[in-house]
Amino acid sequence: MQNTFRRFLTVTTLIAGLHGYALAAPTTPTPSPAPMPAPAVPSPMNMPIPSAPTLAAKSYVLMDFHSGQFLVESNPDMRVEPASITKLMTAYIVYAAMKRGDLTPETMVNISEKAWRMQGSKMFVRVGNQVKVDDLLKGMIIQSGNDATIALAEHIAGSEEAFALMMNHEAQRLGLTGTHFTNSTGWPDPNHYSTARDVAHLLAAVIRDFPEQYRRESEKEFVWNNIKQINRNRLLWRDPSVDGGKTGHTESAGFCLAASAQREGMRLISVVLGASSDAARAEQSSVLLSYGFRFFETRLVRKAGDVLEEPRIWKGAEKTAKLGMGSDFYVTTQRGKFEQLNLVLDVTPNLTAPLAQGQVVGALRAKQGDKQENEAPVVVLTAVPEGGFIRRMTDSVILMFKK
């Protein structure tokens, strides 16, 4: 600005001299206004999270595997036909039998006429042949073969009807309160149903309890009887973080997909039931997974065995007991808001012996303000047997006045 002013003054004086008259000096120019400060960039902690995606499906959920928290849900407890997603439970029971040593991947299984004649998706096994358990598992998971599924069910339980009883027993043990099975394959039946929430918990149980066996679910193709069939889970090709799950489809159920993906140690499980097409169930599952990974994070808050408190124990051989986490405690929060968590420990007052190791005596709750994000049971880490007569009588008297 000053250089411009000097040039202006020199040129003006020169012009004035040429014309024989003097030019008054110019006034000082008005200073430019100071620039407005740039608006502050909002931190992730203050950024609002976008609304959960809305999908064109009967029901769907998105669950974090480690924390068990549901991040997105729509009609999560609606009873629907699970179709071939049923085979997740069949696989769970087969994996459990393998873990017990009742059968191995090399165990040979007879193919019955019922298995051979079964309609729907097929592995194309032949009646009277013997097929290895490992091959039948691949035929069931990758090709969704109903014939392979029935062969496994009959081998384990003697009949598919008996196997269905085992499936319902496991469903009850796993807490799948909205699920009932009548067959091993997912063949339509009015009394064969599940929910999106239960399917998410079932897939999580397969991954948690049988991680080595679960690896089969990431295989993209399988050849049997000179017939190559590809895994119907399209996400295995589209998203490298997707490592398994199960598809399902019947005319009445629509297109269904339970999928699991893992990125940077965070594992999410999506369940979409009743989509309009194969492409739609894959696209909608991808939308759910992307939403979860982009806007949420999961962290380990306390490890199994961590001691949280050592309270006074009444009438016990020991005066105190170590209370803590029976299992790892994870919490899922919106990205950037983990530091806002408050942990609240609630323990049963006046704990009285005997106390068994693993006995639940309270809960650890993770909260953001008034909202509870997650909770986990607090258990007795060191057993406390009942004390002697004098200790019991003394503590009884003290407790009478304490109340």
What does this structure look like?
The protein has 403 residues and is of the alpha+beta class. The protein has 11 helices and 16 strands. The strands form 5 sheets. A 5-stranded antiparallel β-sheet has the order 2-1-9-8-7, sandwiched between helices. Strands 11-12-16-15-14 form a 5-stranded antiparallel β-sheet, with no helix packed on it. It has a two-stranded antiparallel sheet with strand order 3-4.
Task: Summarize the entry for a quick read.
This protein has eleven helices and 16 strands.
Backbone shape: globular
* N-to-C CA distance: 85 Å
Run of helices and strands: HEEHEHEHHHHHEEHEEEHEEEEEEEH
Biggest β-sheet: count, sense, barrel?
5 strands, antiparallel
Beta-strand content estimate: 15-25%
The average pLDDT score comes to 89
Find the structural class using helix and strand composition.
alpha+beta
